[in-house]
Design goal:
The complex is a heterodimer of chains A (about 260) and B (about 290). Helix content of chain A is about 70%, strand content about 0%. Chain A is built from twelve helices and no strands. The chains are: A mainly alpha (about 260), B mainly alpha (about 290).
Chain lengths: ~260, ~290
């Protein structure tokens, strides 16, 4: 690395007119906007299922946690195969369905190119992220186990059905953990890196997966512009701080901490 | 409390169907670790391990190449090529210290943020959260330089000591659970003259066993799979961890793919067993059984 020379705000000025920088910011915002709610919902549905009083839950819980344990290197190779447009498992299953629809409706649907079609790469990566929700799932399970049975009994006495119990008892009681996963999800997806680095190197196709942290990494370690990368880092920092403050402010009314009493 | 039969059937159906999706990565890992090398060069490769006769029958029946004859050769070669027992010992040492350090330090700090009341508490809490928001790619080099100044490169210290200094992620997690501990209990203990450390150890921690178990699991998994940390700080091969060992199968002549998957499978199995037996701890409601709300 070259010696440090003060350049004032030159790096920030350059960022303002850097098209790839704008693009990486846009990619990351779109990804975050979809990936965070989708993964939270997936984890929540799984946690509800795994919290039912059923036989063999220990077994199921372990199965659903598996994708979170398998090393990324192994599972990303699997995804490259699953998402292969020609012989991948996903399109093999999708093709007959689409052909049936086409035959009936006279449309021309074709299975998407996933990681090779710039319009579908983010969808593919989001799909992939619904798989690694084991961590949030466990957190939700822990929180669900902590909901006092007496609250459900009281709700039942008041004639509440399953949906109302979920909405008025379960969700408020696990809201501290929901807030945690929301904030950590935001921080994580804003810094989304490893999967993109392995699955879609260089932000291919056509910079559609050039995520913020990926571009930052290229600047720091490929183009060896540590100062420029650090400027990017500070902007990302501010974006995440703003998003986090927004989340804490807007959720204050919805998060219920049992310990504070009523 | 049992579910009504219809609900139980629906629940099982949903779980079984979803299981197939979620078991895929592990099944893939195992199957590629058993595949002979020549199988993988076929497109698409078969993925069901079966005796040769069964594989042949399946191919005749479906007209597609679905099954292959498994081999254990990658396991034998993989385990001898890389000193797995030594790397396992190193990994276990780092993991154990990380788990102990994380649970102790992060829960203590979280006690300060979640149970104690003091001026400036929330501001400092947000400042602590903010430390997670700078991307690791830019802090990596400065942090490395600091450890080098301390002369602790090529030791486990840079991997383990941070765990004893509290981690924002786990402090936040503990805080969220601590905030649900009934304040009355804490107040009552204070009235009885208990110090804050006593309350932390005697009331708040025992009531947070699911949180402790979850933090322990996450910290363990994080250290177990950490690749970047050991890569940066450990130079001597005798100190390598398993995840570094895994990368050793990628040579300049291409990957020893089958061996890598075999060792990865061996790495995953203890975690699965651990998780299977520990998962009850995450779910047990402590607060509900112990008292009336």
């Amino acid at each position: 690395m070259s010696p440090t020379v003060p350049v004032g705000l030159a790096n920030y000025r350059e960022l303002l007119s850097d098209e790839r920088f704008h693009h990486s910011l846009y990619n990351t915002l779109v990804f975050t906007l979809f990936a965070v709610p989708v993964t939270m919902l997936t984890a929540l549905v799984l946690a509800f299922l795994l919290n039912m009083k059923l036989r063999g839950q220990a077994f199921y819980r372990t199965l659903f946690f598996l994708p979170s344990i398998v090393p990324l290197v192994a599972s990303s190779v699997l995804w490259l195969w699953l998402l292969n447009p020609d012989y991948g498992l996903l399109n093999t299953m999708l093709r007959p369905v689409l052909e049936a629809i086409n035959a009936v409706a006279g449309t021309g649907f074709r299975p998407p190119g996933w990681l090779v079609d710039a319009n579908y790469t983010k969808a593919a990566l989001i799909l992939m992220s619904t798989w690694g929700v084991g961590g949030s799932m466990i957190l939700y399970l822990a929180a669900l186990g902590d909901v006092p049975v007496t609250l459900y009994e009281a709700a039942e006495l008041d004639g509440a059905g399953a949906w109302r119990k979920a909405w008025h008892v379960t969700l408020p009681m696990i809201s501290p953990v929901l807030l945690f996963t929301l904030v950590m999800g935001l921080i994580g997806t804003f810094q989304y890196f490893s999967q993109a680095w392995i699955m879609t190197p260089n932000g291919q196709p056509g910079d559609a997966t050039l995520f913020y942290a990926l571009y930052l990494f290229y600047n720091a370690f490929l183009y060896l512009r540590m100062g420029y990368a650090s400027a990017q880092a500070w902007i990302l920092f501010l974006v995440i701080v703003a998003a986090t403050i927004l989340v804490f402010r807007t959720t204050r009314r919805f998060v219920y901490y049992g310990g504070e009493g009523t | 409390m049992k579910q009504p039969p219809l609900k139980a059937i629906l629940g099982h159906t949903a779980l079984v169907v979803l299981s197939f999706v979620y078991v895929l990565p592990f099944a893939w890992l195992v199957t590629t670790s058993l595949q002979p090398d020549e199988e993988r060069s076929k497109a698409p490769p078969a993925f069901i391990p079966a005796p040769a006769a069964v594989a042949k029958a399946l191919e005749d029946a479906t007209g597609r190449h679905l099954a292959y004859e498994p081999t254990g050769v990658h396991y034998v070669k993989g385990v001898t090529r890389v000193p797995v027992p030594l790397f396992f010992r190193n990994t276990l040492l780092v993991c154990t210290l990380t788990v102990i350090g994380t649970i102790l330090s992060s829960s203590l700090v979280a006690y300060g943020f979640g149970v104690l009341q003091w001026r400036g508490r929330d501001v400092l809490f947000y400042v602590m959260l903010a430390t997670m928001m700078l991307p690791g790619q830019v802090t990596m080099i400065p942090v490395f330089l600091i450890w080098r100044e301390f002369g602790l490169i090529n030791t486990f210290a840079p991997l383990v000591i941070p765990a004893f200094l509290g981690s924002p992620f786990f402090i936040f997690l503990f805080r969220q659970f601590f905030l649900t501990v009934p304040r009355d209990l804490v107040e009552a203990a204070r009235m009885d003259g208990a110090g804050e450390l006593r309350i932390w150890a005697g009331i708040v921690m025992p009531l947070s066993l699911p949180a402790i178990a979850t933090v322990g699991l996450f910290a363990f998994l994080g250290a177990w799979n950490d690749f970047l940390g050991p890569l940066i700080y450990l130079a001597d091969q005798s100190r390598y961890t398993l995840s570094l060992g895994l990368a050793m199968f990628r040579t300049q002549y291409g990957s020893e793919y089958g061996q890598m998957m075999a060792v990865a499978t061996l790495m995953v199995i203890p975690i699965i067993v651990l998780f299977f037996f520990a998962q009850k701890t995450f779910i047990q409601g402590i607060k509900t059984s112990g008292m009336k709300m």
